[in-house]
Amino acid sequence: MRVEGHRRLGLTARLVDDPTAAAIYDRYHAAVWPEVVANGRAAGAIRTTIFRDGRRLFMVIDADDEFDLVRYADSLSSPRTVEWQKLMDTLLDDQRGAAPGEKWRSIATVCDVP
Questions:
Q1: 3-class SS of residue 80
Q2: Contact 106, 59 (CB under 8 A)
Q3: Least-confidence region, from 13-17, 40-44, 52-56, 67-71
């Protein structure tokens, strides 16, 4: 989706099959570390929203046109952001059919109703 210099990306992930994973994930995301937010904003992410349904996660990133998800993931600049990502990776399953360690998978826009 593109809106006046902005675009929206959708991604999916799945929490590990551990009864405590969802509670831990929710607790951390109730107060995302400021360095993580700042790193995302510096990369062009304007707003990030994550929805959870049981173990299923759906992330929406509203970003400027310069935002590149792969480049962002490859260049996490803040040591705290790297620490955050390693911690979150312990709570997420690898994506089926993806490279080992791939936790989030981009999904295509099917419909965009203004």
A1: helix
A2: no
A3: 67-71
Q: Hey, what are 72's tokens?
A: 């962002």
Q: How confident is the model at residue 74 (pLDDT cuts 50, 70, 90)?
A: low
- Give CATH for domain 2-106: 3.30.70.1090
What ranges in 30-78 are assigned the alpha helix state H? Answer: 34-43, 69-74
- Helix, strand or coil, per DSSP, at residue 5: coil
Task: Take residue 102 and report the two structure tokens written for it.
Answer: 């791939």
Give the torsion sign (CA, 74, 80, 84, 86).
Answer: positive
In 3-state terms, what secondary structure has residue 2? Answer: strand
Six-digit token pair at 73? 């993931």
Residue 24 belongs to what H/E stretch?
A: helix 21-29
In this prediction the pTM is: 0.85
d(CA 85, CA 34): 13
| Sequence spans of domains, the chain | 2-106
The H or E element spanning position 86 is: helix 79-89
